[in-house]
Design brief:
Layout: H1 12-33, H2 41-61, H3 68-84, H4 90-112, H5 114-119, H6 122-132, H7 136-154, H8 157-170, H9 178-193, H10 204-212, H11 218-244, H12 260-284, H13 288-306, H14 313-326, H15 328-348, H16 354-364, H17 368-384, H18 389-401, H19 410-427, H20 432-441, H21 445-471
Helix pairs in contact: 1-2, 1-4, 2-4, 3-15, 4-13, 4-15, 6-8, 6-12, 7-8, 7-9, 8-9, 8-20, 9-11, 10-18, 10-19, 11-19, 11-21, 12-13, 15-18, 17-18, 17-19, 17-21, 18-19, 19-21
């Protein structure tokens, strides 16, 4: 599955983009590794401000390869920055927001880069084909759970990898029309993938929220997220059976044998990444997100090198560098889009009359239950008008720290924000995962969400309200 890509043969602009991203990554890793070191205090301060300024430079450098979405976010970020200039703490606020943007950009870039190794991995493709060509009775759960597990370490790379395999797998169905199978399995993909945002430490959701809320019961949050994800996937299965009926067992076309070796390889990769991440977390005191920023680049390079094992090391390294460099424009667009979204969410807090809002909330006597239930609705509505969920997640998360009158539990606040982000995957045609699936499958995002999963999103929200009611009693 490997391919030879010459670094020197790539366009000069691509090489410059790759270099810019690499410098930003090194600056962020240095900041993380020496954050508590007094010996490097002066150098660390310089690196922190360098990373913030370099993120701005990366945005400008990436303009030629950016879409309307990224350019619109740049424009909005510039307008908000200008509006914030007169704030008495403008320097501190803008600096902090740029720091968050740089971290988010690096986080999503290093994790998304893993899809380059996954897409070239024979083991990943074999497992994907096996999952998507299961008998009709097992297909929903195999796709939903398979995508859920792959998404836990490939992040947004998982739906992009699985969607083409789902379409290929639909061609094997003889128990129902191909279009029906495609609809059911694309829905299974979305209903399985989206709920990783409730618990997986590799998701941007957890990286952002656990940085905003420090007094979180992490063990309870993970357990709550896993249980809720299981319930939502089961709800998706029940809806699938209700809408289409239980498939009739009929002879299918020749099915591939269970790829035991491929499953072992994928399991080893997942286990290795999580083990290295948590070992670093407990050994050095990093958060899970910070640990991933440090471990994921090495994991990606080693994974790509393992695919070049038949080549001399030098040639394998050249191919690896070429692959990652060639992916730079795509990685940079993701880093810019999500980094700027985080920046916008952070600075927006300081452009609102927070004291007036706090007084209004105190007068209205809003209960935490109302806040928890309102958050997913706000995030999902924002997604309908092309506003990234991360903008609202960062904004609402930061706003909570400025509103002492709203006495919310940090763990449940993180859960409700995560749920809103996950719900937008099934309900918003502008969610990142939805756009990725649409791009590789040529299915309109409104079809994937409103038409195929609109009712599912409403039912999931109803279950969420019932759960929050029980947790806040």
């Amino acid at each position: 599955m490997s391919e030879s890509i010459s670094f020197s043969a790539l366009p000069r602009r691509t090489r410059w983009l790759a270099l810019a991203l690499f410098v930003l990554m090194i600056a962020e890793i240095f900041r993380l590794c020496f954050a508590s070191s007094e010996a490097f205090e002066s150098l660390l301060t310089a690196v922190v401000w360098f990373a913030r300024g370099w993120f701005v430079f990366v945005c400008i450098l990436g303009l030629p390869v950016c879409s309307v979405r990224e350019k619109s976010l740049m424009g909005l970020a510039a307008v908000l920055t200008i509006a914030l200039v007169r704030h008495p703490n403008a320097d501190e606020i803008i600096g902090s927001a740029l720091g968050l943007a740089a971290f988010i950009g690096v986080f999503i870039a290093v994790l998304t880069s893993m899809k380059e190794a996954a897409a070239r991995s024979r083991a990943i493709v074999d497992v994907g084909i096996y999952l998507t060509t299961q008998p009709a009775q097992k297909r929903f759960l195999s796709v939903a759970l398979g995508t859920h597990v792959l998404g836990a370490f490939l992040n947004f790379g998982a739906p992009g990898l699985m969607a083409p395999l789902v379409q290929k797998g639909a061609q094997h169905s003889v128990s129902e029309p191909v279009k029906v199978t495609e609809q059911r399995q694309m829905s299974a993909l979305i209903r399985g993938f989206s709920w990783i945002l409730l618990w997986a430490p590799t998701t941007l959701t957890q990286a952002v929220l656990l940085g905003l809320f420090v007094e979180v019961d992490y063990a309870f949050l993970v357990c709550l997220g896993l249980c809720t994800a299981a319930v939502m996937i089961l709800l998706g299965l029940l809806m699938d059976r209700h809408d289409w009926g239980r498939p009739v067992a009929r002879p299918e076309r020749t099915m591939p044998e269970r790829p035991s070796q491929a499953i072992r390889v994928v399991s080893l990769i997942c286990t290795g990444l999580f083990a290295a991440t948590y070992a670093l977390k407990f050994a050095a005191g990093f958060t899970v997100a910070e640990s991933l920023v440090i471990t994921a680049p090495s994991a990606t390079v080693l994974w790509l090198l393992a695919q070049q094992k038949t080549k001399p090391f030098k040639e394998g390294m050249q191919t690896t560098v070429g692959i990652l460099t060639g992916a730079a424009p795509s990685l940079l667009r993701s880093a810019i889009a999500l980094g700027l979204s985080g920046y916008i969410g952070r600075v927006s807090i300081y452009l609102l009359p927070v004291e007036d809002i706090a007084a209004w909330i105190e007068t209205a006597s809003f209960s935490p239950f109302v806040f928890y239930c309102a958050v997913p609705v706000i995030i999902t509505i924002g997604g309908q008008i092309a506003l990234s969920p991360i903008i609202f997640v960062v904004f609402l998360g930061g706003l909570l720290s400025e509103l002492p009158g709203l006495d919310v539990d940090p763990t449940l606040a993180v859960f409700s924000l995560s749920f809103g982000w996950a719900l937008s995957m099934a309900a918003s045609p502008n969610a990142t995962a939805t756009l990725v699936i649409s791009a590789v499958s040529n299915i309109p995002p409104t079809t994937l969400t409103w038409k195929w999963n609109g009712r599912y999103a409403i039912l999931c929200y109803g279950v969420f309200v019932a759960l929050i009611f029980a947790l806040t009693r």
